[in-house]
Please model this.
Amino acid sequence: MSAHRGQSAGFTLIELLVALFITAILFAMGYAALDQALRGRREVEEQAARLVAVQHAMRLLEQDFELAQPRPVRNADGTGWQAAVVGGTASGLALASTLSGGDAAPVVTLTRGGWSNPAGVQRSELQRVTWGLRDHHLVRAWWPELDPVSGTEPVQRELLDRVRSLTLRFMDDGHRWQDAWPAAAVSATDLRQLRARPVAVEITLELEDWGRLVRIVEIAG
Model:
């Protein structure tokens, strides 16, 4: 009777502890593998989202230059004109008020065509846009009217973060690179000079995580 009772006895305390210990080890190994897989998936998703954001910002910037038009705009106070394309060091005075807050730094402003109008609003297809940096964010601003009056505020949109710098070079009709556009002093009343556009633009975007990205965009016409 006693032998039969011994053969049907349950696990001892030591056996249970060993089983629990092994189970804990297996659980910890499984959790670490799962956590690593989830972390890897998050990193892939973040990198994919970053890639989409960079591609979108660069494509929009390239598109603005590709569609640049020889249309100067009136100054907000109604005196004189602003060149069709103003960029580089030449943009400091012309664009100082278009971006605000933080380390706001306008880089280029231009008139572009092809402004989509799906709602059929009565307005021009031309659009005045500005690109610049604010607190390490790439910002695009545009005006509701092509020739804005004093007090008209641009619509601003932050497209990309972790941006160290945005620099431009402009190729003139002699195929020489210029650091600013217009390349020479332009009279605010000389519409012929104000209409001048570069032949091409070199865009250099430096990001904190991806380093330098360089694009050269040809301007049609």
